[in-house]
Amino acid sequence: MNKFQTILIIATLFMLSCNQAPPPAPHGPLPSERQLAWHDLEFYAFIHFNMNTFTNMEWGMGDEKPEWFNPTELDTRQWARVAKEAGMKGIIITAKHHDGFCLWPSAYTEHSVKNSPWRNGNGDLLRELSDACKEYGLKFGVYLSPWDRNHADYGKPEYLDYFRNQLRELLTNYGEVFEVWFDGANGGTGYYGGANENRKIDNRTYYQWDTVFKIVRELQPMACIFSDGGPDVRWVGNEEGWARPTNWSLLKRDDFAPGIAENLEHLRAGQEDGTHWLPAEVDVSIRPGWYYHPYEDHKVKTLPQLLDIYYHSVGRNSSLLLNFPVDTRGLIHENDVDAIMKLAEALKADFAKDLAAGQKISATNVRENSRKFREANVIDGKPDTYWATDDGTVEASLTVEFSQPTTFNRFLAQEYIPLGQRVRKFRIEAMVDGAWQTLAEETTIGYKRILRLPTVTASKLRFSIDDAKACPVISNIQVFNAPKVLEAPIVRRNQAGEVTLLTGEEGVEVYYTTDGTTPGTSSARYTAPFILDSKGVVSAIAVDPHSGQSGPVTRQTFDIPSTNWVLLGEPGQNQRAEAPFDGNPATALTITAKLPYDVIIDLGENYSIKGFNYLPNQGRAVNGIIDRYEFRISDNLRTWGKPVSAGEFSNIRNSPVLQYISFEPVKGRYVKLTAVSTVDNQERISISGFNVVTE
Ligand code: FUL
């Protein structure tokens, strides 16, 4: 044996011994195979489309007629194409919502598509959607409401057979199903085959969940079951689109069940001492409602809102189930398509280039010094290799040394969850100009954690685990430099004449002008609200100080300020008398009064008035929206004369946006907006914004 051979043998023996270092023992509850597959999906679509789409409701009563279900251009391939292009991995459809109408021709009820005019009663929406999902390489999932306001037997044992039979149909006839969604909602009242009564059930016992879950396991062994308490995927405890930053994929599962979600905080954050692996799914709609309402066409979530939702769900160890309320044509509305494509583009840009890949990396501890668990595993792009530390070493850090100073603002980490969720506390630091700066101090990681950090240019990044339930096992870290979101700033002026400029993004600078010129970095920089106590135009622009890039310009014209305006009369049960003038669309004045009702405003001095603006309540419910009005002007408050304008705010029910009314100029100090009628015909009117237009 020569020297070379001896070295080779020693090296081989050394490597073999290293590779024999045992992996860390699994810690705590572990994910099942089906849960592991589900974690990888991360982002998928919800579709709320059913009878409610045609009745303009969120919860139907159960007495709707199958004839009303009649989409004119239904195209499930459009849904699948949008989902695919948005980077989503699957679609879950409301096969049956609380009103009981079935999107498939169930053999067990007449209350389904088979008695609708759609496709002459020969349609099967689940067939069309499952086919479209296959064509586009998407997973297919079903929402089946346990509560059924149509069925005569609901609340009795007989209904359970019906429910189970329907579940069997859904899980047998449409190929592979990745998730079955059991909604816990139950409002009690309903049509119930004509009984029209309140039927209360005990959520924990009535449905005999064990039997239901067995059916799912038998027919679709890889399908995850979602509900308030799993058993595979848990609700996140809100419908707004966020999980807590601290989010354990663990829960004391037996304390929960579908419809049993008393402790929302545990659903939002999980439980460190949970007994089962039960990760959170964030369900949220791209509009305020789950179902399509034309009056929400202008309320599709903006890019900053959608990005917040993504980072507060996928970025916080949850999956994101984002809902499209498909419209009465049977299509995802253009506004929703625009919004989701903007999100997809932004996410692509955010994660375009992993700046940690290929860099030098070092660790303070590597399990038994073994190559198998070395630090480089976290940047090798392989999900099944990981860095682990010695047993008992729960504090350890990884340092990425960049080959040159690198600008970044995102950090992504993943634990190797087949061995359990372990990290309790971690920290991110950056070496900037030779000194360590702390960028973030955080808690859990789990399947995936993504941090939005201040933008820094650093020579090194240090990821320190400060506490863990057992030795940390990290499969992946990534570093990105996301471009800033440079939307046109929102410009608002309140009653004091204070102008506020808002952007949905931290770390961007805003520049503005008030003389009509186009703003740029040599214009005034916005640092605090400023006063505009006259007519004027505010133009604003957002700029990324690092890249120098800027977004589109906002130009907002303001008429006379409302500083001295007074709402007159006896407003009775007025709430928020200042709301119509505060410039904030989220606040509204609500007046409870019989109609017609006069809203009188003293403008403080005489003006030549040539129009007015009315912004109805922007809340989720259609509430006190004036549809027929009269508008009068007076200079003495006693004589009003004929209306200077009267009529209807056209289509305001469906489109409750800012209304612009103009007329021939009239001089006066007092204006009277008479609410002749409202869309909901209640003794209530609401005003979110009001303005006059002067000459
Ligand atoms: C809730 C339901 O009541 C809503 O209508 C919607 O389906 C949402 C996803 O779940 O509990």
Which helices and strands, and how do they pair?
Layout: H1 3-19, H2 33-39, E1 43-48, H3 51-55, H4 76-85, E2 90-96, H5 125-136, E3 139-144, H6 157-172, E4 179-181, E5 189-190, E6 197-198, H7 209-219, E7 224-227, E8 233-235, E9 250-251, H8 264-269, E10 276-277, E11 280-285, H9 303-313, E12 318-325, H10 334-350, E13 360-363, E14 387-388, E15 396-415, E16 423-432, E17 435-442, E18 449-468, E19 473-480, E20 490-493, E21 498-502, E22 509-513, E23 524-525, E24 530-531, E25 536-543, E26 554-558, E27 566-567, E28 589-592, E29 597-615, E30 626-634, E31 645-648, E32 659-678, E33 684-687, E34 689-694
Parallel strand pairs: 1-2, 1-12, 2-3, 3-4, 4-7, 7-8, 8-11, 11-12
Antiparallel strand pairs: 5-6, 9-10, 13-15, 14-19, 15-18, 15-19, 16-17, 16-18, 20-21, 21-24, 22-23, 22-25, 25-26, 27-29, 28-33, 29-32, 29-34, 30-31, 30-32
Residues 58-59, 183, 185, 283, 290 line the site of beta-L-fucopyranose.
Descriptive notes:
This protein has 10 helices and 34 strands. Helix content is 16%, strand content 32%. It is an alpha+beta fold and 695 residues long. Helix 4 (76-85) runs parallel beside helix 5 and helix 6 runs parallel beside helix 7. The strands form 8 sheets. Strands 1-2-3-4-7-8-11-12 form an 8-stranded parallel barrel, surrounded by 4 helices. Strands 13, 14, 15, 16, 17, 18 and 19 form a 7-stranded antiparallel beta sheet that branches. The model is unreliable at 571-575 (pLDDT under 50). The chain has 4 domains: 40-350, Glycosidases (TIM Barrel, Alpha-Beta Barrel), CATH 3.20.20; 360-480, Jelly Rolls, CATH 2.60.120; 490-558, Immunoglobulins (Immunoglobulin-like); 566-694, Galactose-binding domain-like (Jelly Rolls), CATH 2.60.120.260. The chain is flat and about 115 Å long. The structure holds beta-L-fucopyranose. Beta-L-fucopyranose binds at residues 58-59, 183, 185, 283, 290.
